[in-house]
Amino acid sequence: xxxxIRVFYKKGYLKNYMTDPANILPIEDFKLFPDLAxxxxxxxxxxxxxxKAEKFLETDIPLLPLSLFRDFWQTQIRSRFENKYGLxxxxxxxxxxxxxxxKKGRFVEKMTDVxxxxxxxxxxxxxxxxxxxxxxxxxxxxxxxxxDQIPALDLQNAQTASLLTMVYYLHKPALDAINxxxxxxxxxxxxxxxxxxxxxxxxxxxGDTKEGFIDNWLTNITSCVLFATAVTVSDMGVRRRIxxxxxxxxxxxxxxxxxxxxxDEGPGYWGGAGGNLFDCLEIIDAMSDGKLTVYxxxxxxxxxxxxxxxxxxxxxxxxxxxxxxxxxxxGRMMMxxxxxxxxxELYSFGKMLSLNLNLESxxxxxxxxxxxxxDFLTPSVTDAEPVLAHRAVYYENNNVAIFRESNITxxxxxxxxxxxxxxxxxxxxxxxxxxxxxxxxxVIVDPSHGSYNNGFFGPTRYDRWFMKSSYHSIPTVDGIEQxxxxxxxxxxxxxxxxxMRVTMNLAGAFPKEAGIERMQRTCQLKDGVITVTDEVEAxxxxxxxxxxxxxxxPEPVEDGTLALGEGRVMSYDKTLKLVIEKVENxxxxxDDLNFMSTWGRECxxxxxxxxxxxxxxxxxxxx
Length: 623
Known about the structure:
- This protein is α+β, with helices and mostly antiparallel strands.
- It is 35% helix and 19% strand.
- Strands 9, 11, 12, 13, 14, 15, 16, 17, 18 and 19 form a 10-stranded antiparallel sheet that branches. A 5-stranded antiparallel sheet has the order 3-4-5-7-8, with no helix packed on it.
- The radius of gyration is 25 Å and the shape is globular.
């Protein structure tokens, strides 16, 4: 049995909670942030928020007519509705936090108008997520209109409840001064649409059903529901039931995470996965006055340290799965996380991020209002030291290896590979993916992902070029790509941390018709040189291609040598035919990968080394 909250039940945490009602505080005795001596808004963040909120004073609240809700079902385009839906919530977030900082009353009226508009929405669930309705799945109109109905409970429903809870927590006196009905309606809607739905409904994201899945939705939604319950629900039976339900569902989540804390959704989702798990534990800790704490579990610490280990340098992260290469995390939550689970590494990493936070790049949005509020009330970091990175890391369950020439992130070569399977959450067909950075900047890359739309999570997901294995620097035989599914996986993987060498057989990630009997990939970083050796054996003579995806156009120096970006040179076997391809968007019916916003380039480039043979070997060095 995997470690996690499931183990804590055996230790008696849940048993004690179930038999001792005193473990959950009544709302009158509850303190949301017991770690803060005083709730003083962060001055740096506050001034920034005021500047943003002032612009919203003159912004019209966008309309959300039924025709716009139904538009998704006619066009399959999510952004038309979601952009306006999201703008409402951005406005409320900025106005509420700016007023909490400034305390002059000039944002209250507009804040209340936006709040009321959101409360008047027939549903907080997105059109694309109505399939989560227990009673009316896949409806093209809002699904619940009677008190006895359980509505769909998706990310945005829960996040909206969390946002309204934050407004209630900060501004109840100001809202009551206008009319107490506002807050009474707020509490009613939060309970009916979100809290009650969390208790009464079974959803595919919650681990309650056999056909379900478990990913960041579970921790994200649970953190929002816990926050809403802790602050707005006085009924002790509901408070206890929510914590009980949350503990069981978080158990479902941790039971699906390996002991090493690897997040197969990628670092872009860590904030909503491991980060939200910590938010949940923090709220349960506060609701129980410290009686329900599980910070000391190894899996909790490992899941937190994952994000530090996946940082390459600055805002660059190793972007396996659906993740952008540049992420802008606020490290104050990581500081709390590291402090409570006893990780000096995570605490120091979070402190460094907090010191260097770029407020223009940080996303103050409605996704996690509890965390935004906690961070907002946490003092600024005024000093931090650079964090020395691990030179060699290996996640055995997913065959992810990370090697560095130096533990100073801006110095030297960086090599990362992954094995695992193509059955991960937010999966790309990328078993064997290769990533190389130099002095903290990209050279060979995972391409990232394109814009989310209905097809992105549907049957056409793997039609997109950036989902294909050949665009993850993985060989192909006769142009046949890897397939999705847990059965398509690497085998015979091993890692030598001391010598920074990893090897795995990629043949099992391809369909049988590819005829690949062996595809052995060996990667090593040694003495300032990266060596990548691929050995391919097929059951017939075939077109064998060794692919490498680059951010910068490679320039031939001489036969067998290419100049890459960041001053690096690639050497390859001259017996292989060299082809250099410009990579542009090729799946135009949908919004595709934005090269400039993702990589700061107009396009990407692919080096292809070709052979016509039954077996071929490619050895590439980068130095």
